[in-house]
């Protein structure tokens, strides 16, 4: 019995046909995983820089950053989250670009992981470990001791 038209999809775009290409692919994956770790650290640093800038501007203009006790639900004043401030357009664009690149990279690395190739999976993990070692040389004691260690293994 004849079947209707078939849809042929070739979803592979990264072809590895030689040992040299495979080695370079593993090195590229290690670099991409390290880049992802760098982007995580850099986006946190950018957020800290923006927050400091906004709090300095607020202090210079005479406004104070809202006290969490004053904006609690019990006081009845809860028009915006405590300690929040509007981010100006240029830093907002920078944050959005960094977020978009990190989301793209995290999904790309996830797809590499989903090839179920042990060597490529190992390359992703090795790159993440190397990137964490290189770019994770500092720790925020206040955050960790408060019980919030960060995102951990979250994709983005």
Helix/strand structural class: mainly alpha
Strand-and-helix sequence, N→C? HHHH
Number of helices: 4
**N-C termini distance:** 49 Å
Query: How large, in whole angstroms, is the Cα Rg?
Result: 22 Å
Q: How many E strands?
A: 0
Helix content: 55-70%
What is the typical, i.e. mean, pLDDT?
Answer: 83
Overall 3D form: elongated
Unreliable spans are none
Q: Per DSSP, what share of the residues sits in E-state strands of 2 or more residues?
A: under 5%
Report the biggest beta sheet as strand number plus sense, adding barrel if it closes.
Answer: none
Written overview of the protein:
The chain has 156 residues and is mainly alpha-helical. 58% of the residues lie in helices and 0% in strands. The chain has a domain of 100 residues. The chain has four helices and no strands.
Key structural traits:
156 residues, mainly alpha, membrane, Cop_transporter, copper transport
Helix and strand arrangement:
Elements lengths: L18 H42 L28 H25 L4 H18 L5 H5 L11
Helix pairs in contact: 1-2, 1-3
Give a brief outline of the structure.
The protein has 156 residues and is mainly α. The chain has helices spanning 19-60, 89-113, 118-135, 141-145. The chain has a domain at 23-62 and 88-147.
């Amino acid at each position: 019995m004849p079947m209707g038209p078939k849809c042929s999809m070739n979803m592979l775009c990264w072809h590895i046909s030689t040992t040299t290409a495979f080695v370079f692919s593993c090195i590229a994956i290690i670099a991409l995983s390290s880049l992802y770790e760098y982007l995580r650290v850099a986006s946190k640093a950018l957020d800290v820089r923006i927050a400091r800038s906004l709090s300095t501007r607020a202090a210079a203009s005479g406004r104070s950053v809202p006290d969490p006790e004053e904006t609690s639900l019990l006081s009845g004043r809860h028009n915006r989250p405590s300690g929040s401030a509007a981010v100006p357009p240029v830093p907002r664009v920078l944050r959005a670009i960094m977020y978009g690149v990190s989301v793209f990279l995290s999904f790309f690395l996830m797809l590499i992981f989903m090839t179920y190739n042990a060597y490529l999976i190992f390359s992703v993990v090795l790159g993440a470990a190397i990137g964490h070692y290189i770019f994770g040389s500092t720790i925020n004691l206040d955050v960790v001791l408060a019980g919030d260690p960060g995102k951990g293994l979250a994709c983005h």
